[in-house]
Design goal:
This protein has one domain: Four Helix Bundle (Hemerythrin (Met), subunit A), CATH 1.20.120. It has seven helices and no strands. About 70% of the residues lie in helices and about 0% in strands. The protein is an all-alpha fold and about 180 residues long.
């Protein structure tokens, strides 16, 4: 049952995100104060995602350095900050609650599923990594020595610039919505 649900969540997370995003844009009622505060929180999330993408070689090696030495899921952690920031920017508690419910219902099982996939690919290395690094909330201590470095080529290959464009588009839309109110 849990495996079926995590498969469903993995398959539907992006389409559901677009549906949630469309509803968000309709119901958001941003004010300047909430927009600026939310934009700063979301910008922090965008920075976390960008940093993580520069360390990630999907399917080639276990990412365990940079932000991956502090949390096993820095991309999702960054996404949660972006979502939180946009929820704040919306100035609607119902949208914030909907985001939290969506994130927990969809991304939590996806993180667990991806961890199982990594175990199949990398075996014992993942077991050691799981013991040393928290699943989601970053640890202040680094779990590995630094041997890898951030690479813009990885950032680009992971198409993380799309998140930056989405962030800018959302802020422009929300600023126009706030202005026209």
């Amino acid at each position: 049952m849990a495996e079926n649900y995590s498969s469903w969540a993995a398959r539907w997370r992006v389409p559901l995100g677009f549906i949630f995003g469309a509803a968000y844009l309709v119901f958001a009622q941003p004010t300047v104060k909430f927009l600026v505060t939310g934009a700063l929180i979301a910008l922090a999330g965008l920075a976390v995602r960008a940093y993580a993408a520069g360390y990630l070689d999907k399917g080639r090696r276990l990412a365990a350095e940079g932000p991956y030495a502090r949390t096993r899921n820095p991309l999702y952690f960054g996404s949660s900050l972006i979502g939180t920031g946009l929820a704040v920017a919306s100035a609607r508690w119902a949208l914030a609650a909907a985001f939290v419910a969506y994130f927990l219902a969809v991304y939590w099982p996806v993180m667990r599923r991806e961890e199982q996939d990594l175990r199949r690919l990398y075996g014992d290395a993942v077991e050691n990594y799981v013991r040393a690094v928290p699943l989601f909330f970053p640890s202040l201590r680094r779990a590995s020595a630094r041997t890898e470095r951030f690479q813009w080529s990885r950032y680009s290959a992971n198409r993380e610039y799309e998140a930056a464009f989405g962030y800018l588009a959302a802020l422009i839309f929300l600023a126009l919505k706030a202005y026209l109110r």
